[in-house]
Write a structure and sequence with these properties.
disordered N terminus; two-stranded antiparallel ribbon; plasmid; 2 domains; ten-stranded mixed beta sheet; D-Maltodextrin-Binding Protein, domain 2; Solute-binding protein family 3/N-terminal domain-containing protein
């Protein structure tokens, strides 16, 4: 009996292989359109050194922009960037306003219920940015009754802060500029954000801001990923092939060096 079942399963498997080999395999409608029209619509949100409009040139620039231009050059597919807010990235993707999110959105189980994430191309940890004259030095200094922590709505930092800080009040805001301003004007104790952006801001305003790093068991690493609709997993395969190839070539280390970003951005926690 078992031999009969095994024989039947083997025959079915062979038949399936023959069927697949005798029919052409095509991409889904979104990837078919992208390849046919040579155009990919990408949703992005402002992020210093990653994706930011240069007011002098009216052109986007940054690490992610360089990566997108490299993808264009290698594939011949023109990328159209559509600017939005961090909180609007997923909603815009689901509404069909763009084909893919390429803002380095962190892959989390919560977000994965709404979008499909691809291969990680970068890594960040969570830190706190405080006023330069703030007495806050540690995680424990922050997590106290009466403290207010500003975050950007829809980011991994918001999820981390709401999950981790038990006593301080977490206040989501629409964008980074507003969240940082709350700290500078004394309405928030700290802004919880990613390690790279916070360190850059602290370096730019050393008399006003300071970056507070957490112990390894208190911080949280997040990845930087592209995201698509679950109906477009073939598009994700296409993008992942590019990302994996570029990682093997050391492309993301090269970009980190170009934009004066820490090398761990390209390699993650060790």
């Amino acid at each position: 009996m078992l031999r009969t079942i095994a024989t039947a399963l083997a025959s079915a498997a062979v038949a399936a292989v023959v069927a697949l080999s005798s029919t052409g395999v095509s991409a889904g409608p979104t990837l078919d359109r992208i390849i046919s029209e040579k155009k990919l619509v990408v949703g992005v949100a402002p992020w210093n050194k990653f994706i930011l409009m240069n007011p002098k040139t009216s052109q986007y620039e940054g690490l992610i922009v360089d990566d997108i231009r490299n993808l264009e050059a290698m594939t011949g597919i023109k990328v159209e960037l559509v600017n939005t807010t961090w909180s609007g990235l997923v909603a815009g993707l689901q509404a069909g306003k763009w084909d893919v999110i390429m803002s380095g959105l962190g892959a989390t189980p919560e977000r994965a219920t709404a979008v499909a994430f691809g291969e990680a191309f970068g890594y960040l940890s969570s830190t706190a940015m405080v006023r330069a004259d703030s007495p806050v030095r540690t995680f424990a200094d922050l997590d106290k009754e009466g403290n207010v922590l500003s975050v950007v709505s829809g980011t991994a930092a918001q999820q981390y802060a709401q999950r981790t800080f038990k006593k301080a009040k977490v206040t989501p805001l629409s964008d980074t500029g507003a969240a940082v301003l709350e700290v500078m004007q004394g309405r928030s104790t700290a802004y919880i954000g990613d390690s790279v952006s916070n360190e850059l801001r602290a370096q730019e305003r050393p008399t006003e801001l300071r970056n507070v790093k957490f112990a390894s068991n208190q911080t949280e690493w997040t990845s930087m990923n592209h995201a698509v609709r679950y109906a477009d997993l073939d598009l994700l395969v296409f993008l992942d092939t590019y990302v994996r190839s570029m990682k093997l070539r050391g492309w993301y280390r090269t970009l980190a060096e170009k934009w004066n970003l820490p090398p761990e951005l390209a390699v993650g926690p060790r």
